[in-house]
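Notes from the 1:1 (GR / supervisor)

We went over the backlog. Supervisor wanted to see one worked example end to end before approving the batch request, so GR pasted a single chain during the call. The sequence is below; no edits were made to it. Supervisor asked that the structure be written out right there so they could see what the output format looks like.
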Amino acid sequence: MQKLKIKSFGPIKEANISFGDLTLLVGPQASGKSIFIQLLKLLIDKNHIRKTLEQYNYVWDKDIDKTLNFYFGEGMSKILKSDTEIQLDEENIILDRFLSPKLGGGQNLSNPSELLFYIPAQRILSVSDGRPKPFMELDSSAPYILRHFSEILRQLLQNGMSKSESIFPISNRLKEPLRQSFNESIFHDGKVVMDDRTGQKKMRMQVDDMSVPFITWSAGQKEFMPLLLGFYYLCPPSKVSKKDDFKYVVIEEPEMGLHPQAIKSVILQVVDLLSRDYKVIISTHSPVLIEFAWAFNHLKNSKVQDNALCDLFDLKKSASTKNLFENILSKKTIQTYYFSRKEGKVSTKDISSLDAGSDDEAVAEWGGLSHFSSKATDVVSKYFKDE
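Structure output shown during the call:
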């Protein structure tokens, strides 16, 4: 997967994205970022999605509206228009034919691979009462990616972590610098466990001689838990560095509810995913992620040593950090795209240079994420000067 081009799909007039090892998508709310990456998931994992839906007694037939509502969520089928154009790499895709119930080209539904792991922006709904919900417990109006993600987390806790009641910290899950970073920025020595005192196993936090139910945690801690479980799923505790057949990871708005220090910890985990050779796509409204991309590109162009990243993340140089950062600057690339909405239509622009001195406002203001900071500086300078 190198490039996805689409025209006239939902609010998107035209989008043309070439993917890096890490691809950042920025833009205002309702600018089509989620629709774009959900479509990418559908194009890559159609057979796996179909098999999953049919396992839950959904009927995949030639009614394209019904299929799109199953996948994108109730009422979303009209995002497909008569003049929609889709091209994945060099292949033109006509969506109603692509989603036909007839299999062709030797396709097999018996054991289809899943290549893209998707962590949705609405992830908190998957654990809203302290436990991951089964696929069918979430309303059918919810998009497929949320229901599937929730089911994966449920199976992870039920089967993949059954030997321990502890969820965080766990010595064989995530690399030591990452566990330490998450502890310092999010959990503050709290221990997360699964507890069955209510009759159902639910998350609680043991901290300061208290056992605190999920509902009373801070907003950031609650938002982070499904993200953490997603990281666990992608980073198995074995000599195998990657999970199953996954090649790509999508994370929507990883900054949700998090302080900038905690966002920095999440970026560190994203670096670990890159070191495991996942290609990562992130939609974000956080300037912290764009600041990382800006710093990364400058360090890469300067051909400095990987240990410069230790300084960026305030980490001591060690064997574990060397393993984490090795060849990241020399071998990985970051692309950044802006989803710009004008007169109700969205188009994309490559702003990967992130050049604050650019004549192009979208580039200079990092897709609008630095606009208010620049404006505040200008206004303060103006009135300070007038005094």
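Supervisor's comment: The chain is about 40% helix and 20% strand.
Batch request approved.
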